[in-house]
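Bench log, entry 3. Co-assembly request; chain sequences pasted below exactly as received.
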Amino acid sequence: AQKVTQAQTEISVVEKEDVTLDCVYETRDTTYYLFWYKQPPSGELVFLIRRNSFDEQNEISGRYSWNFQKSTSSFNFTITASQVVDSAVYFCALSERTQGNTPLVFGKGTRLSVIA
Amino acid sequence: GAVVSQHPSRVICKSGTSVKIECRSLDFQATTMFWYRQFPKQSLMLMATSNEGSKATYEQGVEKDKFLINHASLTLSTLTVTSAHPEDSSFYICSARVVGVYNEQFFGPGTRLTVL
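Structure output for the full assembly:
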């Protein structure tokens, strides 16, 4: 069975600090996809990144970076020089296989508060 | 990118009434759509998988007769909450799956249901 664990329920940082959001996943499949979404107070999910299980290369997009470690089943997300606009709930999600009707399994989310 | 719309974005109704929520894929065809429910400060929980032209597959604990799902076309799925009660108040989010190289899902903006 697939499972996503975000151990950090809430994180509070001061603006300009770096912050890392942890995500640990469980799956029996060798082919799977990992995602990060941002959910601001408006509620709409904002897609941030997708990573497939065969691509362990880390990725950087502006102030965002992701560290995929298959050996530890982790897909951590770092925000550098955080800003107040980064305040939101961040969800890590997992989807198994490319075929079939496999939905996303979400972690419980991490609520990030960036204080000015 | 692919766009998914939901209507209405917000609805308030009296207890005992039925509410219909529409989920549309605007610029692509979606053979599969998913319905999620999110209670305040909680994660997204899959309610059901909706397949065009066939019956929806419900997750354990989700009442089929209470949450009616219809996926009559490749661009529209509807969720009807029948005889709504205050405990049904929640944020309902749909997603549409794009079949291809990546197991991509595009999320609608969500519908906030409040049952008085």
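The interface with chain A takes residues 32, 34, 41-46, 49, 51, 57, 91, 93, 95, 97, 101-107, 109-110, 112 of chain B (CB under 8 Å). The mean pLDDT of chain B is 91.
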